[in-house]
Amino acid sequence: MDNCKYIPNPDQSDFDRDGLGDVCDNCAMRANPDQANSDSDSRGDACDNCLLVPNEFQWDYDFDGVGDWCDNCPVTRNPNQADANNNQKGDACDGGWQVMCKTILPPTPTLPKVQQISTPGE
Question: Taking CA atoms, which of 10, 45, 69, 116 is between 20 and 30 Å from 99?
């Protein structure tokens, strides 16, 4: 029996043993016999890091397991996606870079004004 009905796969490889050949399986590394794909990208739900948002390349800048396209704080690790004030920005990112910079960096000192000194003969 061919495990990839519409795509040729002579060796019939099925790494995840879900009954579908690797060349036609939308998540060849994890068993997903139903091939569910809620966001209609090329990744099955079992391998998709944004279930409801198409994100073909599965980018995850902060390595928190939540894809950048649906991460409420894509540059700071926050796997739980907590958002206490419901502002669509994760608690880990609330305050933004300006607040973070003001906390970490001391204020810029005010430099005295420089006066030009003339030398004789000018």
Answer: 69
What Cα–Cα distance (Å) separates residue 64 from each residue in 21, 24, 88, 121? Answer: 30, 28, 17, 68
59-100 per-position pLDDT tens digit: 999 999 999 999 999 999 999 999 999 999 999 998 754 344
Closest by Cα among 91, 88, 87 to 77? 91
Are the CB atoms for 96 and 103 separated by under 8 Å?
A: no
106 and 122 Cβ atoms separated by less than 8 Å: no
How far lies 21's CA from each of 6, 27, 75, in Å? 11, 10, 36
End-to-end CA distance of the chain: 97
